[in-house]
Amino acid sequence: MTSAQVDKEYGDKGAERASTGQGTAADGAAGEGYERGLGSRQVQMIAIGGAIGVGLFMGAGANIAKAGPSIILMYALAGVVIFFIMRALGELLLYRPVSGSFAEYAREFLGPFFGYATGWTYWLMWVVTGMAELTAAAIYIHFWFPPIPQWVSALVFLVVLFGVNLISVKIFGEVEFWFSMIKVTAIIGMIVIGLGVLTLGFSDAGDTAAPANLWSHGGVFPNGIGSSLMTLQGVMFAYLAVELVGVTAGESENPEKTLPKAINTLPWRIIVFYVGALSVILAVVRWTEFSAGNSPFVHAFEKMGIPLAAGIVNFVVLTAALSSCNSGMYSTGRMLRDLAANSEAPRAFGKLNSRKTPALGITVSVALMGIGVVLNYVVPEKAFGYVTSVATAAGIWTWMMILVSHIRYRRGVDAGRLPASSFPAPGGAVFSWVAVAFLALVTCLIAYDKDARVCLYVAAVWALGLAAGWQYLKRRDPRITERGTPEYASARD
Asked: Virtual CA dihedral for 191, 192, 197, 202, nearest 10 degrees?
């Protein structure tokens, strides 16, 4: 079979599944052409790694400076909402696991335009997130080599990770496995050392380290509840990528077992890696000593007088940035291929290379990530803030689409039109509504923040571009508007 025939079969089957709303974990990726190269251990570590990124290692410094110890509560609150989102996604994934999951569910339950908009917006999220991670990685290199310009380091990392993603999904999974393993081991080690400082009093920070640091310097909310709430935009950025397990559905060896396990362990990951780690750090070092642009993890070890440990932690946060950028390259190629399969992107993006990877989609996405290299050259001190705000806005849209799709799906199940998932979300659609309200609050807070609201301007321009693109697609092929699920027409009314 030629590559064109494979692409045609993929597109036809994707449309057929979207129109029927049927599918099982066994056949969810049938005809897509991907290699099921991600084993259970890799999916689990990708899920864990998705919850540990630059938003924690670097962005937490600015959030601590704004909110003080209450930042722990903000990460915990956001973590609860993220769990609601992931359980909603998990129910949809076990109903019909497909590689372009978010866009496919939006297309099925909300209509073809929303599938198109979600696919392109999720692609944008990872392109700009890749820029943020490249920026962070370049900043971390300054810890050892201050003379190296940020843009040089960013360019080198971009080229190396591009090569990793072109080889095969197995190589991607293995690299991501070890990136995540480094992050997990380091955070657990940091927690153990921090607890040792608190209980045994060793290191330079031993005399001042105490649990009372969590409330003694201005209280839990030293700058007021309003300042704490304003950090939610940065906090939510820290959780971007937890939904990546949904993108891996089409390439997982056993999605019925690996996906529920990966999602159900999310609360423990949040408790340990966010609440636990930040609680220990802020008990060891007063919150007033942290600032934006510096990793609180690195600063904590420097404060302890353990320079070697600070260097090790800097290496860990560097791998965290590279891990997220690596995941971004992976997901952008898959999302472009899903869009191409539904005639919502150039057909060439639907082709796989001999190693069964969407090489063209990855290549174009990486080329656009190169804008981050330019930003690091032009405005190195502001590059991280610019791209994280845009990525957060795109992430909020994606999460909203997951939640609304889940609400519509549950309506279809309750009406007897759709089969029930083997992994139902607790509380049905109730918690999805709670999460929708929370994301709406975060959007309002972004609009109120003069530094963050730039992302809403970008979002408005992006929305106009999507609308114009949709009009072009409708003129080219009017049938594109008929790809929603006929059974769900009433649910969309």
From this structure: -140
Q: Within a 10 A sphere around the Cβ of 345, how many other Cβ atoms?
A: 23
Angle between helices 112-141 and 383-414 (to 10 degrees): 150
Least Cα distance to 459 among 400, 405, 402, 403 occurs for 400
CA 490 to chain centre: 32
**What does 65-123 look like in DSSP terms, one character per residue?**
HHHGGGHHHHHHHHHHHHHHHHHHHHHHHHHS--TTHHHHHHHHHH-HHHHHHHHHHHH
Whole-prediction pTM: 0.83
- Classify burial at 154, counting beta carbons within 10 Å of its beta carbon; exposed 0-12, middle 13-18, buried 19 or more: buried
Q: Which two tokens stand for residue 65?
A: 């400076």
- Cα distance between residue 189 and residue 338, in whole Å: 40
Select from 27, 38, 52, 58 the least CA-distant residue to 299: 58
pLDDT tens for the chain, residues 1 to 493: 333 443 344 344 433 433 333 333 333 433 356 655 566 666 666 666 656 766 677 678 888 999 999 999 999 999 999 999 999 999 998 898 776 678 889 989 999 999 999 999 989 888 888 877 787 788 888 888 888 887 888 888 888 888 888 876 777 778 878 888 888 888 888 889 889 888 887 777 767 888 999 998 899 999 999 999 999 988 888 888 788 776 666 566 677 777 788 788 888 888 888 899 899 999 998 999 888 767 788 788 878 877 677 788 788 878 888 888 887 888 888 888 888 888 898 989 988 877 778 889 999 999 888 876 776 667 666 666 667 778 888 889 999 999 999 999 999 999 888 999 999 999 889 999 999 999 999 999 988 888 778 888 888 999 999 999 999 999 988 888 776 555 554 443 4
Is the separation of the CB atoms in 123 and 330 below 8 Å? Answer: no
Tokens for 467? 């609308």
Residues in a beta bridge with 252: 38
> Among all chains, which residue has been given the structure tokens 């930003």?
375
Dist CA 360 CA 364 (whole Å) = 6
In DSSP notation, 226-238 reads HHHHTTHHHHHHH
* DSSP H or E run through 280: helix 277-284
Rg (CA), the chain: 22
